[in-house]
Amino acid sequence: MAKAKSLFYCTDCGNETLKWQGRCPACGAWNTIVEQPAQDVKKKASSVSAGVGARRPRPMAEVEAVDELRFNTGMNELDRVLGGGAVKGSLVLVGGAPGIGKSTLMLQICDNLCRFSDVLYVSGEESERQIKLRAQRLGIRDEGLYLFSETNLDDIVAAVQEKKPDILIVDSIQTIYNGDSNSSPGSVAQVKECTMALMHLAKGMGVTVFVVGHINKEGSLAGPKVLEHMVDCVLHFEGEEHNSYRILRAAKNRFGATNEIGVFEMVDKGLVEVPNPSEAMLSGRPENMPGSCVTCVMEGVRPVLAEVQALLAPSAYGNSRRTSNGFDYNRAMMMLAVLEKRGGLMLSNCDFYVNVIGGLTLDEPAADLALIVALASSFRDKPVPFDLAAIGEVGLTGELRSVNAINQRLSEVRRLGFSKCLVPSRSSGKLMAPEGLDLIRVSSIREAIAVLAG
């Protein structure tokens, strides 16, 4: 009997090699090579050629180019992240931690989608009865929604070809398996083949496919990295374990921007949209407490106010402790060094803690000034005025630099009831302060700290 051939795959990037290696030659990751049985290449080649044999290359001038057909999912926050709605014939991957609400989100959009289209909900993790009970709890309508509890890819494809639904939801891709492959469900080979088959359904039949994906312990989507390259849109559903707010981010979107976010709140009746995330993030903000400052960041075209908290405490040991949650750690360390060197505050013998309220992750330089002000407030144990916000980028010499979309940020700051705002003295465009908002222009962090002291 001939020995079965095997190939080796990288679980990070999907690169194939003929032998095992400690380090992937494509992406450079260590200990990510796993063994999978090789497929019959001739069989795959014949099946592919049979399906596309009638197609020929076409001149670009003969290709019809029309705007993509979009439809609303019934959730404005999801439509915002998708770029204005879901696109017909697209393949969308939704990933998140267990229990974050991925299945709830997919089931809730069915309530609106069933009003004008047929939806096939395929679950490899729950039975039809379990889905029915959860749909009743969420108040999902029955008309136009078909349930199918199946993990075999061939049966799923046959059901799609029979029912011809407009929308297909697969929960989750790690539970689906192809019977022609000898590997186990959730493996690199299975995830690649199943996703490729779903992509052919989406492009060939014009079915909009939503695929739910798991994440690994590192927080990235489980399966090969090529999975994210195959789909049209990658959405990350994030949230803290003890926080009711959920944030939906687009990591990839072929039909829209990738820096938009959608905010939801998990309640007993499912996910509820949060149309005003700034107000939600600032609810419960303490008054007259040092170490807290509000800034405004841009999430796509939406300005969002975020509260940055800092705590400096004398270190009880030789090495000071440094912790940052929601703020880039390296940038926070840089701000700490700038404040000590250019601001004249001796912070080297203090423990350093930074936290961003609401589960937001601040990765743009506009939040630098708020962190500086919060650190100085905590060090001097003097609270920041409750009606003061801070917007600006801080350089290594302690200077303040302008940020983009400053007028939109200022409008949001004023709308939330703030009357004063620290801004850089130099601006790339004309500053138009809203009525009732006093702009305090500063050129360095020393001037900003002086305003806090005054």
Quickly list its features.
nine-stranded mixed β-sheet, 23 strands, alpha/beta, 454 residues, 28% helix, 26% strand, globular
Q: Average pLDDT across residues?
A: 86
The backbone outline, from C-alpha atoms, is globular
Percent in strands: 25-35%
Number of strands: 23
> Could you give the distance between the termini?
87 Å
Helix segment tally: 12
Tell me about the biggest sheet?
A: 9 strands, mixed
Q: Give helix % range.
A: 25-40%
Question: What are the segments in which pLDDT stays under 50 over at least 5 consecutive residues?
Answer: 40-53
Query: What Rg is obtained from the alpha carbons, in whole angstroms?
Result: 26 Å
With strands numbered from the N-terminus, the spatial order across the biggest sheet is: 8-7-9-10-6-11-12-13-14
Report the oligomer. Answer: single chain
Judged by helices, strands and strand pairing, the structural class is: alpha/beta
Give a description of the structure.
- With 454 residues, the protein is an alpha/beta fold.
- Helices cover 28% and strands 26% of the residues.
- It contains 12 helices and 23 strands.
- The chain has helices spanning 41-52, 76-82, 102-113, 128-138, 153-163, 188-205, 226-230, 277-282, 329-342, 368-380, 406-415, 445-453; strands at 6-10, 16-17, 33-37, 70-71, 86-87, 91-96, 119-123, 145-149, 167-171, 208-213, 233-238, 245-253, 261-267, 270-273, 292-299, 302-314, 322-325, 350-356, 388-390, 393-394, 400-401, 420-424, 438-442.
- Strands 8-7-9-10-6-11-12-13-14 form a 9-stranded mixed sheet, sandwiched between helices. The chain has a 4-stranded mixed sheet with strand order 15-16-18-17.
- α9 crosses α10 (368-380) and α10 (368-380) packs across α12.
- The longest helix has 18 residues, at 188-205.
- The radius of gyration is 26 Å and the shape is globular.
- Mean pLDDT is 86; it is low at 40-53.
